[in-house]
Model the fold of this input.
Amino acid sequence: MAFHNKITLRIANQEELPQFKKDLQKSFSVAVIETFGSILDEPIPSDKEIEESFHESGAVIYHILSNGETVGGAVVTINEATQHNVLSLFFINTTALGQGIGSQAWKLIEQTYPQTQVWETHTPYFEKRNIHFYVNKCGFHIVEYLNAYHKSTHQQDHEHSLGDEDLFRFEKIMKNKN
Done:
């Protein structure tokens, strides 16, 4: 079955951020329930983690829209000097999964920042859907496995809500378009 979605991005307003946060945490809770059998005591990602991403220097918060309706969101951090940019948070609402919206939204983000040299992102080890998405759909490569025996040695330390749980760090090196 083919889906016909016109995917667009819209910068989120300050007053929309509380709902953005709730939608993000709701979408992440699916993998937590699948893996751990129930929701953890604290939402994933934590309120603190989300707030920090919102206020990071160079952060841009986007709603992802399908045919004009909000179906997800993304937070990117753009470093104008190095063009080593970070996809801090990315989600598609559970009701909109499986329609190619995430892939189309990611392509729009890449097109919005054509000067990017490298994109970076992280995801918990148990987020199989995210790992599939970043590697197989978006062209990222796993470049580091962060765990209790190997803390991040790259850029910034990324605290995450699962304490000592493991994370993968991904990079996508962009082709020089010149």
